[in-house]
Amino acid sequence: MKQGGAFIEPPPLSEREFTGVQRLLYREAGIWLSPAKKALVVGRLSRRLRELKSPSFSAYLRRAETDGTERVRLLDALCTHETHFFREPRHFEFLEREVIPRWRAQGETGNGEPRRVRVWSAGCSTGEEPFSLAMVLRHHLPVSEGWGIDILATDLSTRILEQARQARFPVEKAHEIPKQYLRTFMLRGVGSQEAWMKAGSELRELVRFQRVNLNDGHGVVGRFDLIFCRNVLIYFDQASRAQAVERLLSHLSPSGLLFLGHSESLVGLGSRMRAVMPTVYTQRSSTGVPASRG
Hints:
Blueprint: E1 2-3, E2 6-7, H1 15-29, H2 38-52, H3 57-66, H4 68-78, H5 89-106, E3 115-122, H6 128-140, E4 147-155, H7 158-165, E5 168-170, H8 179-185, E6 186-188, E7 196-199, H9 201-204, E8 207-211, E9 224-229, H10 238-249, E10 252-260, E11 273-277, E12 280-283
Parallel strand pairs: 3-4, 3-9, 4-8, 9-10
Antiparallel strand pairs: 1-2, 5-7, 6-7, 10-12, 11-12
């Protein structure tokens, strides 16, 4: 750390203090830090200690335990937020080739109500995932044909959610987006904003952002046709992972699909789900492709 032209060493992090951070993060978020993450804790919390003029990690932990706002800031700092547009392309190919054509073939609901698709992006980070989903769904399910789309994007981090709400991304990320979607849905900045691009209003109106802690699941209402929870469960231990999966499944429609990350699975987490392709699951009684209903 640098202060007043001089580098200031962060205070040392003792094993007892690291254990305190471990326990707080696990209790609040279900995330278990391995001992190998000790340097990460120092790196991500030292700046906050300096801002608060906290003399030690023990003093900072005492503050975080009694101050809910500071506890949220601690969680924000320690949670990893790495994401890309159209990450794990096979999932989006599956939506385009299998799921959406089945929805369209099912046609009208039969009662004259608009057809609506509900999606939950759990662990949405800076917003690339929910906006990728919005592009695919709006392209194939246009509003002119009566399709309604509702995407709930949630994350534990209030700081990251505020960034995601801006729907503003470095233009270097443009190469991650298929050209047809890039031209249709993204706006290139000009002048002082030329290094940025922004999701157009047609996308922004489809996505709503909300802070949700998967460790308790409060705040999510209703059931979803698609739930994306990718590269989130890898940070949980077996017990908290099983609890998080149960909360996700409680919000999955009877014929809905749950998408996990490429290194995640439901093996050992219950038998009521079956894989329709690697890392994509549906309930055993369903066909594997959910029906869209108003």
